[in-house]
Please model this.
Amino acid sequence: MPDQKNTADMLIVGGGVTALSIAYHCARADIDVILLDPDPAEAAVAPAARPVRTYQPGKVHNSELTVRSLADYRAFAPAGGADLVLSDVGWLVVPAGRAEAAELERELAAQRAAGVELELLTPERARAHNPWLAPAGAEPAIWCPQSYLLDVDKVVRCYAAGAREHGARLLTGRTVTGLGPRSGRVVTARDEFSAEAIVLAAEAGSGELAASVGLQLPLWAQSAELFRTDPVLADGTLDAPFTVHPASGLKTLGAGRSFLVGLERVSRQEGMRDAWFKEASEELGRWYPKLRGTGLHSVWTGTVDVTPARTACIGRASGPHERIFVAAGYTGQDLGQAPATGRIIRDLYFDRSPGVDLTPFALTPSAPA
Model:
């Protein structure tokens, strides 16, 4: 049996920004917290800067969480405070045709009600924001000034420091090998723990742990890749905001003399990397004629935890799994939703309303339309 020092009110499995946010918000609310991070203490932290987009086209519920989280980041308190938002970079959404444009326009009122700042742009004004876009096209675009660069290194370190300051015990190098959902027992290769509540915030690993005790979650690890184009300027810096084309999933951002390029895809099919690389190249040339034939070079590869609906699983399980809480499946949006998630898990632990409709985040979300 675990000894007394290995018992807690809440045991969090995971070491990323979401797990640390949960640890901080719950410890601050006087919940006795132990966090088990599978990575060693000397593991490298995330890149220093990463863009976060507040506006989530087609998913007002996701936008609401990112708006709430942005407010938290701008008023960050842990470890004496820190300036986490490095700069506002803007977020340009370019529809592929009239049908998609009309769909985005229909939800503008709901997005604004969720706190998203949006402006409908003529094609000419859209190209003024991003002059690299193709001159063709007559559909309006949408501009959101709330996309921003976040200092990920500071976020991780400050959440960890703030959690410790409020009494949370953050243990590294602990890979969970077994769960006891009825007893609250958690086993690692090194030791054993018990808790009233178990929070699975270990990205795609959350799905594997849940499945090991009969709780099926619709999430998995998806390969992801980010590219950089050949330099397209001889000198100077590209003036091109974070731009997305929802129909294809193409994303671009000016970075120095090159573009950063990504292509969002969610699929369980293996071996799709070459097909997606070809599609990214074709889409880039379609929307940016001056970049046709420009070389694309991989600058980051990894995995993200995804769900079919591209919306995270956030909530508490039921029945024999009622001790288990889940916060995973963010489809790359974990950084933008981590602060709000920490508050939600805290409120669910106390059995009180988090002030957010969690229906879209149910542990068994529906497939995308």
